[in-house]
Specification:
Six copies of one chain form a homohexamer. Chain A has 191 residues and is mainly α. In chain A, 72% of the residues lie in helices and 0% in strands. The longest helix of chain A has 23 residues. The interface between D and E is medium-sized, with 35 and 35 residues.
């Protein structure tokens, strides 16, 4: 029950690769890890927050972005395709992640747990502005990384799905610069 | 619905790393992939079959060993720890894998599907001699690979669990040479 | 002289990279290893066997596919180009591989050696239906993996040779679906 | 001058490896990248902030942790040893990093630049509680990662320097749990 | 102060990756290391020397090529972009490299130091025929490696800069075959 | 028949891994490549030459060190174990390497071939002082790299053979500092 033990688990995220890349032909030696992905997500979530008109709880937003994939330190990155197969599987996956998160947070000294527990619960619920911004950032940086892969030779057809996916997620956000972001993304895939 | 499409999916297994290693500190660039693991499993399953007194359907045994992790080409390697958290999760995981396998097998021309479907069903049921030998081989080669990691500097404490795990699985098999195998494994961890 | 020692050598195949990729510009961190290649070969050999009209000894076929590159666990993967240089070199290479195989098989307890020795001898001879199907599967999955590399940006010109190579090997097999396989392969290289 | 261009540069940090590991024998395929390191730093900085009695500007703290190594996206990770050689070099390195940061921040639309500029300036100055906590977190997670390397076989002697380094940095912080953290770190190196 | 200690440091160059590739999207697992780069540089420097009409001190030329990046074993590869930012930074970088080289050479027994010290000084000065040939070889093999990356799918636009860079460096050398080299390089980028 | 084509083949050596490491459990992502190995060999060969009393043709010595493994750019690194199996195999391997070298050198414009042809022939003969120094350097840097692996956790027992091997090769050289080198090597393996 120490910060040291908790961070030792966080360190695992440096070795969990994002399955979405692997299953589309990116070799493990090239595939992005979850820790690095969470880093970019947090930066973009912050930039999006500066551009929205709604009031945003910035510390919660950043914390949420930093830990939104932390359960993967215990159970790995279960690909979205697995969840689509069956609504019950999506449900079970969400339950597995929640279970994993409870176990991981239990490594923290009690008085440090609450802020993380609150951020995680809000992320899972998905309705607060913080949760929606983190979700949008998550999808946008994934599409941006797909664009990087395309620049190094990967097939536009295969990776375009990430742009479409991001676009549908951010549609509801009223942030002008997100449109520009999507436009620049698209250029990589059509250019 | 062609062999080409089916094998293209099998090829994914070369990029799916075994999560059990990653979550114990083995970096992705070193972690074993599922295709290579299945190869060793099939060889050992065959050698165990030669030593058992029960009659074994060798083609089914080998096919089973070759495809026992094939669903991971769609949904990645969900670690055992995730399953232990909750019996419902174990159930859901099994369902997800079965779903994935159905989808993958559906890529095969119809007349080629049946043998694989039969082998997969028998593996999932787990009671036939073929299924038990494949299960034993799976655990033993995992422990053997753990032993290899220990020889390159990884901690004996962390990886010993794979030996214990293998030992309990093979206990019910009455194959003398399995005992010897376990003894040689143990030597690496205590020597 | 134990199964444990024998499998420890088999485990080497996970670290032997296929030289054909390396010498065409694929970095080691991306190049396929021999164990993973043998896994796909065995699966395809099995599927081809189901489609041929000749009677096939399935256990031997699968065993042959699993061990056909096992000598490389001792002597590495000597590229085909080396053999072409000189018929004497091809001969010497075959002798070196046979030598290596004898040494590796000698690690097995005596009563387990014979099946592997028989399968290896038949593979080397190359005339049985099992040997011809394994050879065909070997070439076809190599070409399929080349196609995967092309999809991630590698040059079609450089890797087309593997398709031509596969095509000439399978020409003598009278299996309709092999033609389809070749056609789908070609599409990747001309599309 | 768009968020897209700015994040494309941030994405570089996933490919910048921490030189401190490389120069102590860790191969590139295993060495931690700067993005992943910044992720863990931000989490620990947050946890330290919860335990200090001084008031902390949490958004600035987190932002600072996320971007404290961002100049390395332009100029790579110049190792500390280079700086020690000569005070003028340390000075020049700091100037180079500042230059790089100005260029990177200039990719952001103007109204998004100021928060990042302020956080960076405070980090460089190094006197605010936020800057000191980020510095402490930076050193502690580096030592924790060194401990992970030791567990996978790397020499205790070589990597102990990171613990000593962390210890001297955090000495001035009056946070009880930091002492515990150091104690657990030490155990890995003496155990 | 032994050859053993000196070579242990040289061995570091196998783990120092060339930053120019990393910052243009090449992942660490693919990026060339400095030792391998120095090897190709030495070979080309020798071939250029055979074609020039000026008298060349061959041992010095080869030694210079072998050690021209040796300071990077201490301070890593500081990218050229960092130096361009500011003339003072270029100056500081050169000083840091010189400092590092003095320290590295100090590991050698005294009587072995002088030849290396002389070669390094001549390289830094940059005016001798040996220094100019090594500089040209350095740029040409870098552009050639960029051409290799382009063949595996990397963007021509991004890497063309290395050809331009090489071209301007070799312009002053009056070696006919260098023109041919540049022409063949260009073909990769325009073909 | 251009320098460009010749160097494109030399570039292959960056992707040819030294089989001796792979077959002793070092994963490809960590195993040294032949280009980097040749670089260290050339540096040590030079330092040995400075310490011998016999007159040494330095340009030839350095060239020989740089190209002594160049045939591996065509045929890969055939491990020594393969050669030991049978004297005929050693002979065949030497012939294969010589064949490969002739082909590679044929890419060079005619007037550049002769120096390399002479150096290669002298290396193969193995009796000149240059050839003996390169051979000694080759073995010593291999043992030094083995020592580096031991420092990162690899087993002393497995890699000690490289020290014994180096020791027997250098015994005939009358260079005092070689003894010291061997002593420092031994310390890593016994300490």
């Amino acid at each position: 029950m120490t910060v040291f033990q908790f961070l030792t688990i966080c360190d695992n995220l440096k070795r969990v690769l994002r399955t979405g890349w692997l299953l589309r032909g990116v070799p493990p030696s090239i595939a992005e890890n979850v820790a690095a992905h969470s880093h970019t997500t947090a930066i973009l979530a912050y930039l999006l927050a500066l551009q929205t008109e709604e009031p945003v709880d910035l510390p919660q937003l950043l914390l949420m972005a930093l830990i939104h994939d932390l359960p993967e330190a215990h159970i790995g990155d279960i690909p979205i395709s697995a969840q689509r197969a069956d609504p019950k599987i999506r449900e079970a996956k969400e339950k597995a992640e929640d279970n994993a998160m409870q176990k991981i947070l239990a490594y923290l000294p009690e008085k440090l747990q609450s802020a993380l527990t609150v951020a995680w619960a809000a992320y899972c619920k998905g309705t607060s502005i913080e949760a929606r911004l983190v979700e949008a950032a998550d999808r946008l940086v994934t599409a941006l990384h797909a664009a990087q892969l395309v620049k190094t030779g990967y097939s536009k057809e295969t990776f375009q799905t990430f742009v479409t996916h991001a676009e549908s997620t951010v549609a509801e956000l009223k942030i002008p610069q997100v449109k520009e972001f999507i436009r620049e993304l698209r250029e990589v895939f059509t250019g």
